[in-house]
Amino acid sequence: MSDFYRDLNIPKSCHVGNTVFKKLFYDSGDLNKTDKELFTEQIDKIIWTFCFKPDTINIMPYHDEQREYTEMEIIEVRLHSDGKIKRIAKIIMRTIPYPMLLVFSLDNKIQLWAAHQRISLADQSRNTIEEFIFTDWVNLDKLTDKDKMLLQSLQLQNLSHVNYYRLYSDIVDRLITYNASKLTDGYIEGKDADDVKVIYDKIAGIDQEIEKLRVGIKKESQLNRRVEMNIEIKKLESGRKELLGGLV
Q1: Which pairing describes strands 109-114 and 133-134: parallel, antiparallel, or unpaired?
Q2: How far apart are CA 64 and CA 205, in angstroms?
Q3: Kind plus residue range of the DSSP H or E element containing 98
């Protein structure tokens, strides 16, 4: 893990390294009994690894009607096991109201999670978490070429320094591009991340439909219906191939 952080080339001025005690989340009032058991049983330790704010790095805060990004955090969550990570991410991001890169770690593997936040219209003291963008597990002992491209793209010098919104948006875009690149032979470069995500989401939807049809074929007793389902799979696969062409 130390190599991972070192390779991000973050200035020492941003390093924190403090433990975030679970009591912070227990006292937030949002955790039920199941959530508390989840934190107790599944999380080994939570570490506030880095803090980007004006007095640690020369990047400006960002404010508009929807967002207030005065700083950005990198928080590591060391796990005992890898279940219900989305719920853990949601609790941590709700409790600590700053944009953050969450680094889940388990046996020298990491998952990177991010989600933009905006001010809640119902309660302006709270933030609303937008869509989670996250990677599969990345094995730091066996990095693929695409893993290396992701980590290189996340190096601080390769991210925007205009303000914290632009900085964080770059991180989110890098995760989107990496996820989509895993569907292609090469690594996606020079394409708008929003466009990439639209295609990636459509492909993910097609994959779900194909999987549902394949499960249905195994259960279907009528031959003609199985034939129809196979034809539908072929059509979906053709559409998927066409979408993939938009990523390269």
Answers
A1: antiparallel
A2: 33
A3: none
Question: Any residues with CB less than 8 A from the CB of 172 and at least 6 apart, and which?
Answer: 114, 115, 116, 133, 193
Q: What is the pLDDT of residues 113-130, one digit of tens each?
A: 999 998 876 665 677 899
Instruction: Find the radius of gyration of the CA atoms of the chain.
Output: 21
Residue with tokens 């980590």: 151
Q: Where are the domains of the chain?
A: 2-164, 193-245
Residue whose pair of structure tokens reads 């939570």 in the numeric block: 46
Residue 72 φ then ψ, to 5°: -140, 145
Beta strands in 173-228 (DSSP E): none
pLDDT at 125: 60
The first and second tokens of residue 167, run together, are 């900085």
- Match 């959530």 to its residue by tokens: 35
- Pairing between strand 133-134 and 138-139? unpaired
User: For residues 202 and 179, what is the distance between their CA atoms, to the nearest angstrom?
Assistant: 13
